Amino acid sequence: MAELKVLYDREGRTLTVWFSDRHQEHICEETGDEVVLMQDAAGRVIGFEKLNFSIPEADRLRVALETTPA
Question: Which of 3, 11, 38, 43 is nearest to 23 (CA)?
């Protein structure tokens, strides 16, 4: 089963999304748009982090996931 991990750090103001095992992270590359791509040893993107991400204190972070037919 595929697993997607979404981590929101309100204090650090980051939103991190992992598509694969985060322990496989080999290198990170900032895109210049306050987005950091995490890659494995083969260069595949296994996650990303959005810097300076915030939602209002009273709001809750909701994540919706949709899949498309293969």
Answer: 38
